[in-house]
DNA sequence: CGCAACTAGTTTTAGATCAAACGATCATCA
DNA sequence: TGATGATCGTTTGATCTAAAACTAGTTGCG
């Protein structure tokens, strides 16, 4: 490895961000996965600033919509997060009147989750913002979208 | 949406994890990206328990190795994390004698970062563990690896 | 020169996340 | 029936992260 003789020539037009070698990292799927997720997350948040759109909230509400009566535990597994992180999200959603929890009489440890009408309306609004973001991603990956999702899904399924 | 008549038949061989509909989420690249990154990260951590292998540490050391004399700010950009999160990592690495910081005389605000011999040795050990993990990912994606990384890289480049 | 605007790194504050421990409830089986 | 062990949801503690405020140093320009 040559000592990367830093070209600090005084006339070089200030290389705002000098190129950085990623080295072995550049060949790691895990690393690029993190970078991409991070970039996606940040872009999402940028758009989200407008609405009260937090990614976690959106995912939770969307899953409840698709699975009315789902329990918090199943919800946590579907959304890929620990069950303990679901608790505060649900509390916030309930406080804001967007979801309703009802005890399941057959198993009084569990709760059944539903969207309220206000929740349905809110989800519809959030969906538009989210769809806009994902259209951006769609444009980036083009016709490889299906293949990309299939690969990501396989990673999740295999690694548990 | 039919009320998902939950098949709670008493003789059904306990459906450990009843199928959950992801709904619109299932078509979102961003969502699958998060799930996959999460699964990868957790699998990594599982293996990492053995060594003192924290993903952040590993990435930082690998980038320093590939770019001796790099500054913390450039490092934060390359690793996709905020500069303020780099500080404690560097402090820990320096405390453990794995990196060295030296002031840059040309700009006394900046620090140049290097791996110490102990750091080089440690990185080599960590690399083996990391490589093992990424081989797992390689096996999952098979010959699509190159394409997958290209897609992820394009996402990062486009979304900034 | 000397002031204003900018940059590098740190500290502080706030939020998200996981893991482990806990109370309440349920299932199993003698 | 009654005790043991499992499961659901919550709480607590630790770690990781970003954003904003701050200090020290630098650059530009009158």
From TrEMBL, chains A, B:
One of its GO terms (biological process) is response to stress. InterPro entries: HTH_MarR-typ (IPR000835), MarR/SlyA-like (IPR039422), WH-like_DNA-bd_sf (IPR036388), WH_DNA-bd_sf (IPR036390). This is MarR family transcriptional regulator. SMART domains: HTH_MARR. Residues 26-157 form the HTH marR-type domain. It holds the Pfam family MarR. GO terms for molecular function: DNA-binding transcription factor activity. PANTHER family: MARR FAMILY REGULATORY PROTEIN, TRANSCRIPTIONAL REGULATOR, MARR FAMILY. It comes from the Bacteria.
């Amino acid at each position: 490895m040559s000592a990367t003789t830093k070209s600090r020539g005084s006339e070089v037009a200030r290389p705002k961000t000098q190129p950085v070698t990623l080295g072995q990292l550049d060949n790691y799927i895990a690393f690029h996965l993190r970078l991409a997720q991070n970039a996606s997350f940040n872009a999402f948040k940028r758009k989200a600033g407008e609405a009260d759109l937090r990614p976690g909230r959106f995912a939770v509400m969307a899953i409840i919509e698709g699975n009315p009566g789902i329990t918090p535990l199943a919800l946590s597994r579907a959304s890929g997060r620990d069950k303990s992180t679901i608790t505060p999200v649900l509390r916030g959603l309930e406080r804001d009147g967007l979801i309703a929890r009802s005890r399941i009489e057959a198993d009084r440890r569990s709760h059944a989750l539903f969207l309220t009408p206000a929740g349905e309306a809110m989800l519809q609004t959030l969906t538009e913002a989210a769809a806009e973001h994902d259209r951006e991603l769609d444009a980036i990956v083009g016709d490889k979208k299906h293949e990309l999702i299939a690969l990501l899904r396989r990673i999740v399924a295999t690694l548990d």
